[in-house]
Amino acid sequence: MSASLAPTPLPDVVAGWRSALENLSPHASPCRYLAPAKWATIRENAIGFCDRFGAEAHRLGWTAQELFAVHPEHSTIRVDHCGVLMVGSQPAIGVETTRILFERTAGYRNGPGQVWGIPVWEFAKKGGGR
Questions:
Q1: 36 and 61 Cβ atoms separated by less than 8 Å
Q2: Would you give the end-to-end CA distance of the chain in angstroms?
Q3: Listed range (54-58, 91-95, 109-113) with the worst mean pLDDT
Q4: 29 — phi, psi (to 5°)?
Q5: Prediction pTM value
């Protein structure tokens, strides 16, 4: 007889990331220059990342800014301030200490002179999409 395996609960920090993303509408982009259809895909992939890789990312020290940031004034137009999950539209397939893996590319944690923005949910709170 096999025992039923209950899903492992997310660490509180990761559950907070997931909740903040879920609270953003999939139909209305929080960022002025980010098309709603692209935002819906990014949001879905980011929530999926939290579910699949969030606990490991947190264990490896990834922060909300490194994953979900956008420029505090220019949102996703300034990709040099964006978190790894905010610039593409592919789901992540893995997480490592210094990079998030995608099917054909990777997003890196520490670029030369990297400056992170603010989490997309903070951008939305201040009305950045208007």
A1: no
A2: 56
A3: 109-113
A4: -65, 135
A5: 0.90
- Angle between helix 36-59 and helix 12-22 axes, rounded to 10 deg: 180
Question: What DSSP line would sit under the chain, residue for residue?
Answer: -PPPPPPPPPPHHHHHHHHHHHTS-SSS-SSTTS-HHHHHHHHHHHHHHHHHHHHHHHHTT--HHHHHEEBTTTBTT-GGG--GGGS--SPP-EE-SSEEE-SS-EEES--TT----EEHHHHHHTTTT-
- pLDDT tens, residue by residue, 17-37: 999 999 999 999 999 889 999
Provide the token pair at 53: 């890789």
Query: Would you state the pLDDT for residue 1?
Result: 47
Per domain, the residue ranges of the chain are: 12-125
